[in-house]
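Quick check before the chapter quiz. The format below is the same one you will see on the exam, so make sure you can read both the input and the output lines.
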Amino acid sequence: MSLCALQPEQGIALAGQIARWDRWGTGDVVVLGRPGRPQAAAWSTGSLLPLGLARRPGAGHEGVGPGGARALAEHAGGRLTRNGSVAGPQADVTAVWEHLEAMGLRARESRWVQPVLRAPAPAGGILPAVLGHRGLEWVARGVRPALPDEAPLVLPASVDMFTAELGYDPTAAGGSYARHVSWLVEARRTYILLDDGRGGPARPGSPARVVFKTDVGALWRPVPGREWGAAQLTGVWTHTELRGQGVATVALAAVVDAVRREHVGRGGSVSLYVNDFNTAALGLYCGLGFHRVGTFATILL
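Here is the expected output.
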């Protein structure tokens, strides 16, 4: 966690995984360096989340060099699974992928440039600045954490987002993805907007559908002595019928403000990452004042 704290937006995915579980299997968490003085670390299961392999001059971090990256690759290579990934800061993924590729692993797809964007934190929140979108006050009022019994409503939206992003249906291999969606909902980490099926506010007791959702995919809550935490938003999705109407702008602004209130504190970090070729998403985030703080990469296996 001390390593992750050097750059919260870079380390949040790893910190979130470690914080999520109270136990893990032998070898699932890897630390490189001396006891109590970590130089690099990773979450190593069916996917690999490396951190700290590469030198970061701005953070005063020297990395571990080719030998450390090779050692991690040797540890992780046999654990990686089909439809797994190697994901994290671009420099760290580059350092370990060179050795994994030399071991015979092949990528289904490589996404080398994924800007990491941090949300602005004005004193009054970012929602007031975007409520000039005519007729969308109902969106601002309607964004909230999904309730546990709404998980079946959330699942189709999550599957649609996942399939469009990664190219396969995550439910085809069993129920693990549905359980993950339910876990996020039960943890109040999935934010949704319901409508009446016609692009208007949902009415109590009437049929409703999810038209916007995003998850707090990784969360590092404030710890003793620190007033802030860090959150990484994932799975941002808007129903096709409501795209291009300002709904996502208002809804995402409401989510960022809510995550700061409910999870990470006013000074906390709320970030996300996006593929550089997703121009629509980049326009949405930059229009809300998100600014770039790094670059991730993802190798899909």
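If your answer matched, good. The helical segments are 8-20, 65-76, 90-102, 137-142, 151-166, 176-186, 247-264, 279-287.
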